[in-house]
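Sample pair:
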Amino acid sequence: MGLAFATSGIIHLVKPSVFESLIPPTLPRPTELVYLSGVAELVCAAGLLTRRRWAGPVSVAVLLGVWPGNFQMAFDVTRAAGPGDQLQVAAVWARLPLQLPMMWAAMQGRPPRPKHQAHQAHLTRPEAQANSV
């Protein structure tokens, strides 16, 4: 997932025009939103690749945040489709539910929750270790 976020984030920053048409018309400043989502995706990529606890939930939030753009693309492709474009229309609509397994995958790389600090301190004190033997 981290590499997918990194690739997408880089494309957002290098060629924002690819994504500008995905910004719903009700939202202002599409170029700036594309840059913002690209930076967010790069932050997620870094977190996912280094297995930070926050990376999964933040990645899910980013995927939810860009989901309207995927809907916009589906609407636009459907509206502009000609007789021979059924496969393309099917592909853009099929992409929408794929966000769900991507969200699930983003959450899978999280390290386990750290144990309570007091419990950890108790286990690391030499006298506690000596008493448990």
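Residues 2-131 form one domain.
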